[in-house]
Amino acid sequence: APLPLQKLRDSSSETLLSLSWPTRKDEPYRFTDTSYIKSSEIQPITNPPQESDFSSVSEDTHLPNITIIDGYLVETLSGLSGLPEGVYVGSLSKLSSEGILKRLSEFVSNVEGDLFWSLNGVGAPDLIVVYVPEGCRVNAPLNLRYCSVKGSDVGSNTLPVSNPRVLMLVEKGGEVGIVEEFVGGDGNKCYWTNSVLEVIIGEGATFSHSYVQTQSLGAAHIKWTSIRQESASTYKLVEFSSGGKLSRHNLHVQQVGPDTVTELSTLHLSINDQTQDLHSSLILDHPRGYTNQLHKCIVGHPRGQAVFDGNVRVNRYAQQTDAGQLTRSLLLVPQATVNVKPNLQIIADDVKCSHGAAISDLEEDQLFYFQARGIDLETARKALIYSFGAEVIDRIPFAYVREKAKSHIAELLVPTVKSIA
Amino acid sequence: MMAHCSTSSSLNPSNLFSHPTFRTKTLSIPRLCSLSSIRIPQSHCATNRSSLRRLPVVAGAVAVDSQASYTDEKEGKKLLLEVKDLTAVITESQQKILNGVNLTVYEGEVHAIMGKNGSGKSTFSKVLVGHPDYEVTGGTAIFKGQDLLEMDPEERSLSGIFMSFQSPVAIPGVSNADFLNMAYNARQRKLGLPELGPIEFFSHVYSKLDQVNMKMDFLNRNVNEGFSGGERKRNEILQLAVLGADLAILDEIDSGLDVDALQDVARAVNGLLTPNNSVLMITHYQRLLDFIKPAYIHIMENGRIVKTGDISLASFLEKEGYKGITAA
Ligand SMILES: Nc1ncnc2c1ncn2[C@@H]1O[C@H](COP(=O)(O)OP(=O)(O)OP(=O)(O)O)[C@@H](O)[C@H]1O
Ligand SMILES: [Mg+2]
């Protein structure tokens, strides 16, 4: 294996030795039950997908794109035309530039993760690289399609696991947008996607990140996003997750220079018997950072659950930071559960901060206002739920992704609204 | 120095829905769904003091009897709304608010209801449009020959009653244009007419903006969100202009309006008046009545209409106050 991948595997196996399976007694998993994975027989996917697997993967018309099936980059299903000179998107093993290889080696697996992070490091069949050279602006968003093809039936108690891993480096002044889309398996197919994205955003560089997760309702989806922001860089994330039986996003943003901009927006939908979890941590160690986090979730099932633990830490040297954090939850059925823990910790003293948390049902007065204008209750509920989510979806910078997410929400809401209206 | 602001709430079903803080947020579903089932049978023993019309004797006869009433005419005008001995309580506390309201409105008539704060004017109008905060405990309300009290709120609206709220709510996340479009299309569906897509609707609504002197960008803003008091009122009238109504109930459409805005709103309302549709306005001030001239003025007190007169009642009120009325 190429050096960075070997390095990753070595350090991951080493940390794995000291890690055990998280339990409800561990703070990061206090509200999130991972026994769905633990109690299943886990089958690592060790072979690249076959031609016959491709039929279930639809052609993506949005270029440039790469398709990653069960953790393996499939070149025949990818199209990279139109990328500017010097940009590299592809497998580490095919990377010929010594210079880039050297740069990547400096960063690979520098961040501490958890058990799932390390499992991915050991199990990743490849390291998929996105490299944007200095001052380079990539106009069209790059689509990363993660498809899970291998899966077991409900009740079989086996989970094929894939470990896609992407390392991305945006050099000084570079600018790129990425759409990560996780799909796979109609209905209730069972599998485990254990994915890691590691990004270094260089000085003054901009990374716009859209992450859409609509995997099967039998899937376990564990995702790590680790971001390192150098001075004056910008990171904007918009996440929409509605798939999976158990879905957990660990988001870690580390500021390594002043004047950074960080905007995190998430919409989680637990419309079925499922758990959606966001654990985010944003650490500010340098002056004049701007950060804003908006987390929203809708729970519409008696056994549905949403978990949010959002830690923003403004350390001593992060003076003149402007930090905001807001979480809002919408519970559509009485038995629905949310566990939210927004947490803004401020150690610096010259800081502007705002935060809030609200949990509610749809407002009765608002529903009545619709009815008083001749709009039936079902339509009214739908409009209100939809607009609740739209605040996040509207922040997705790419129209086709917005439309996709919106129609997905509309589809999910049809049966729900009917049954509760 | 360390400031630590952190909130942690762990909510499971039982504590969320029993916690006092969330009392007002309990789910509306059961109540709204059972609108018709909570309606207790109408009382048949109502003594009919104020109206000469015959009361239906058995509940089953209501529809038939009232159908006859609708064709009932006064100087060639059809009966539009007939409320008899209407009583209502606050759903949550069962506190009595309406104590037997009687009111008859014919097509093309303009009526005004005046009365002290808290006398039940807004409650009466909200009961007519089916607000779930109130439960009707007796009496009847017939609109265009149909039993209003048996209808869902949206059906009442679609059948031609429009109430502008004294305090319209804001609906963050839903644009004024989308909201109006939804309401307009609901009406079109009901009438069996084609619905309009967003672009067609925009040009339809554009012409109405002038009528209430509203700027285009109001359509793109969220419903009443961040609107000033006066802007909310104008927005209610815009909705009326777009949707139309046989009976417009205007609850204090004049309060909070500056002189220019009052004229705009009054002009818009007058512009909507035809020989066939009626207005029931609630106001505290003579000045609105100078613009929109009512034929009848009713005084409400303690959940009942205690006096009905012509426009002169308003000027009397202006001079003497409510003491004069009650004593009279
Ligand atoms: N939902 C409610 N909950 C509690 N009390 C209510 C409710 N609705 C009405 N009331 C009470 O019923 C009475 C009548 O209220 P209503 O709003 O109908 O008065 P109004 O005549 O419109 O007064 P105003 O002129 O101030 O608008 C008041 O005492 C009011 O506090
Ligand atoms: Mg009132």
Automatic annotation (TrEMBL), chain A:
Residues in SUF system FeS cluster assembly SufBD core domain copies: 160-388
Sequence ranges assigned to domain SUF system FeS cluster assembly SufBD N-terminal in this UniProt record: 5-143
InterPro entries noted in UniProt: Fe-S_cluster_assembly_SufBD (IPR055346), SUF_FeS_clus_asmbl_SufBD_core (IPR000825), SUF_FeS_clus_asmbl_SufBD_sf (IPR037284), SUF_FeS_clus_asmbl_SufD (IPR011542), SufBD_N (IPR045595)
Single GO biological process annotation from the record: iron-sulfur cluster assembly
UniProt name for this protein: Protein ABCI7, chloroplastic
Lineage: Eukaryota, Viridiplantae, Streptophyta, Embryophyta, Tracheophyta
From TrEMBL, chain B:
Keywords, in A-Z order: ATP-binding, Nucleotide-binding
Gene Ontology MF terms: ATP binding; ATP hydrolysis activity; ATPase-coupled transmembrane transporter activity
Record flagged with keyword Nucleotide-binding: yes
Domain of life of the source: Eukaryota
Residues of the ABC transporter domain: 81-327
CDD domains reported in the protein's UniProt record: ABC_FeS_Assembly
Alphabetized Gene3D superfamilies for the sequence: P-loop containing nucleotide triphosphate hydrolases (3.40.50.300)
The UniProt record lists the keyword Ribosomal protein: no
A single cellular component GO annotation: chloroplast
Gene Ontology BP annotations: embryo development ending in seed dormancy; thylakoid membrane organization
NCBIfam families membership: sufC
Protein name: ABC transporter domain-containing protein
Designated gene of the protein: LOC110724569
